[in-house]
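Inverse folding, one chain.
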């Protein structure tokens, strides 16, 4: 199951303004945890939005994008909600993940998992979902999906690949194929064989953009200097799919991208049809929580996922992003603010960050991070 299907496509947009953030604090909205933190000047403490502590007066509250920013302002962590980290809870989740990882093909119930880590099923479900970003059941499903994708890419027959990946029967596989692969298993193995994909190219301030979609949603957004090369890349990726150039069908999606690049919108309302491993799904979800006009480092993303040593894996997930802008991997930079790599070119990343920062009313240094160099707003194309 793809956890993105169960969450809003633009979570960060709900908490962009101070009014929206204050409302989240007043309602103790757990969905806002990680999107921002709030500090109280009278106590010198900062908290998560869902903290159960007594509600402060609005005039004493300031908002921060990261726990590091709150600490830099001289605030201490709340001992009740522990906004800077959850060491005990993380240890519980790590043990649960170890149980699930020991036999990825096994179907472990929530009750069995809770017995293994010695906490109640209800507490484990809430804790695992909050820390990992997906439920234990979704975590197992992603493992099966990853094993299935690997087997199909090696050319194994669908039935054998399904059984080896932990599906009890081919019928069970096809019931879950759309959510775990993004397309039918045979179509995935055969590079889109039997799949109909509509696509179109258009000119933008960042050069040519190609948008491709299945009947479920967007599966590919890419920027380049020439439409022919973008189409060629799509044909190699989905070599056996039926590709249909269809400007009219793709036009509403292109219009959103155009409005975004010209400052007409800050978020997207695009249905996505992309498949990923559990970890990549978590990274991509974290990227979509980065507010417009702000950035995070690869290290910050890894820490937010409870996997501080997985910096390289975070970078790999960013590089594998198939849908530019819709999953804003351009908002991830190196620890000291350097712009690192970008699948569609560093010059485009530079323009996107500078433009977003200016339109969000932030300074270039605040948006790009310490040590980042200013960008020029020249067209890339």
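Residues assigned per position:
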């Amino acid at each position: 199951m793809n956890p993105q299907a169960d969450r809003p496509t633009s979570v960060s947009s709900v908490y962009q303004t101070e009014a929206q953030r204050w409302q989240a604090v007043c309602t103790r909205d757990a969905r806002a945890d990680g999107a921002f933190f709030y500090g109280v000047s009278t106590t010198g403490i900062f908290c998560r939005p869902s903290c159960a502590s007594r509600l402060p007066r609005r005039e004493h509250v300031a908002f921060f994008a990261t726990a590091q920013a709150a600490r830099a302002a001289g605030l201490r962590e709340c001992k009740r909600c522990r906004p800077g980290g959850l060491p005990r809870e993380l240890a519980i989740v790590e043990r649960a993940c170890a149980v699930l990882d020991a036999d990825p093909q096994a179907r472990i119930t929530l009750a069995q998992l809770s017995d293994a880590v010695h906490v109640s099923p209800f507490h484990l479900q809430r804790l695992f979902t909050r820390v990992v970003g997906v439920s234990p059941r979704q975590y197992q499903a992603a493992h099966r999906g990853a094993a299935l994708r690997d087997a199909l890419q090696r050319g194994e027959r669908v039935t054998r690949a399904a059984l080896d990946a932990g599906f009890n029967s081919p019928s069970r596989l096809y019931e879950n194929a759309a959510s775990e692969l993004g397309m039918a298993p045979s179509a995935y193995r055969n590079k889109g064989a039997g799949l109909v994909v509509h696509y179109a190219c258009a000119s933008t301030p960042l050069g040519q953009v190609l948008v491709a979609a299945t009947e479920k949603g967007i599966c590919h957004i890419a920027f380049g200097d020439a439409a022919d090369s973008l189409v060629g890349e799509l044909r190699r990726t989905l070599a056996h799919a039926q590709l249909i150039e269809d400007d009219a069908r793709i036009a509403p999606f292109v219009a959103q991208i155009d409005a975004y690049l010209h400052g007409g919108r800050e978020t997207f309302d695009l249905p996505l049809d992309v498949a990923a491993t559990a970890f990549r799904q978590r990274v991509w979800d974290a990227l979509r929580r980065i507010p417009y006009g702000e950035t995070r480092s690869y290290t910050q993303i890894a820490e937010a996922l409870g996997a501080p040593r997985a910096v390289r894996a975070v970078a790999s997930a960013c590089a594998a992003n198939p849908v530019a802008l819709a999953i804003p991997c351009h908002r991830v930079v190196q620890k000291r603010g350097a712009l690192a790599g970008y699948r569609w070119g560093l010059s485009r990343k530079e323009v996107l960050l500078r433009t977003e920062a200016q339109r969000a009313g932030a300074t270039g240094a605040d948006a790009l991070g310490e040590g980042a160099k200013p960008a020029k707003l020249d067209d890339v194309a």
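Residues 87-189 form a domain with the Arc Repressor Mutant, subunit A fold (CATH 1.10.10.60). The chain has four domains: 3-77, 87-189, 196-261, 278-368.
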